[in-house]
């Protein structure tokens, strides 16, 4: 499985912005040689990189080092990524987008960041959805929580309030489907 470089750049920038340069150096040195080579190298936003070494391992290391093993670190990376992209290059679209239209667009965005993957958005109520995704190999709670953080920040930027997200079902194999619940007021 592969992930677009823009996700790796966002991960690297997150650590650089949120923590000290000493923390950044400690984090980068904690990575395996392959992961270190990717993250410390010249990452091109539109290129594909190995999913496990490029994204999962660095995210796990962030959660372990700075969040005492909590998935909160993965959520914060997702939030950071949404803030950066939706207040940056997509800011004009977001200003006119409803939370519903943004979520529908997000499924397309996520599918362009991960290869292969399948993402489906199912409306459950007026302001309630389930986002289902599969084909992640290996499935990982780090991806689930990165996506949750991204969705929360994106909905906030669109003006939604009282946002609640959660992992309704976590995939155990690439053929299983992760289900994220998304609600707001």
Outline the fold blueprint:
Blueprint: E1 2-4, H1 5-18, H2 21-30, H3 33-39, E2 48-50, H4 51-66, H5 72-86, H6 91-96, H7 99-113, E3 114-115, E4 118-125, E5 128-134, H8 141-157, E6 164-169, E7 177-183
Antiparallel strand pairs: 1-2, 1-3, 4-5, 5-7, 6-7
Helix pairs in contact: 1-4, 1-5, 3-4, 4-5, 5-8
Reported CATH architecture of the largest domain = Alpha-Beta Complex
Q: Please provide the count of β strands.
A: 7
The radius of gyration computed from the alpha-carbon positions, rounded to a whole number of angstroms, is 16 Å
Uncertain stretches of 5 or more adjacent residues:
none
Q: Report the sheet-strand fraction.
A: 15-25%
Q: What's the CATH topology name of the largest domain?
A: H-NOX domain
Descriptive tags:
four-stranded antiparallel sheet, 7 strands, three-stranded antiparallel sheet, 185 residues, 54% helix, 8 helices
What does this structure look like?
- The longest helix has 17 residues, at 141-157.
- Strand 4 (118-125) and strand 5 form a beta hairpin.
- Strands 4-5-7-6 form a four-stranded antiparallel β-sheet, with helices on one face.
- The model has no long low-confidence stretch (mean pLDDT 92).
- Helix 5 packs across helix 8.
- Helix content is 54%, strand content 19%.
- It contains eight helices and seven strands; from the N terminus they run βαααβααααβββαββ.
- The protein folds into two domains: 2-70, no CATH class; 75-183, H-NOX domain (Alpha-Beta Complex), CATH 3.90.1520.
- With 185 residues, it is α+β, with helices and mostly antiparallel strands.
- The protein starts with a strand and ends with a strand.
